[in-house]
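re: ur question from yesterday

yeah so i grabbed the chain u mentioned. its 149 aa long if i counted rite. heres the sequnce exactly as i have it in my notes:
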Amino acid sequence: MRMDPKQFREYVLIHGTDILGWPEDIRTPGLKALESSLELQALLEDEERFERVLKERRYEDPRPELAECIISASRRKKDKRPHSIVVFFSDLFWEFGVPNRALTAFSVSLLIALILGFAIGFFYPSGAISSEQNQINLEAFLYCEGDVL
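ran it thru and got these structure tokens back, copy pasting raw so excuse formatting
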């Protein structure tokens, strides 16, 4: 089995730079590919250097007062803008990352107009049947061509 450079790079990323630690079925083709290619040797050296940097990096524990600093900093931040519906929608659009604010504002205003139109139509129906019309329709139903049903 021959190993191409792309496969070699994948195996280095998966199994690490120690080729002798690779699974047996890919170890021998990996060694042969490494011996025959200067590019792969340079790649292996770069990966070994990168692994050394990662191993040498030290982890620093956070300070004990870090949580208190974060909480106190968040409490100090005050919003100095006045509270209004315009500020609310502006913050809402900003929060959700609306790409075209003018189009969104127009869409929201159309939605509000639609809701107001439904509300006005529900509370003030224009095509309501009056009680007189209802009585006439009932009489027309009961007296069909002069006969009482």
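noticed a couple things. The chain has seven helices and two strands. also The mean pLDDT is 79.
anyway ttyl
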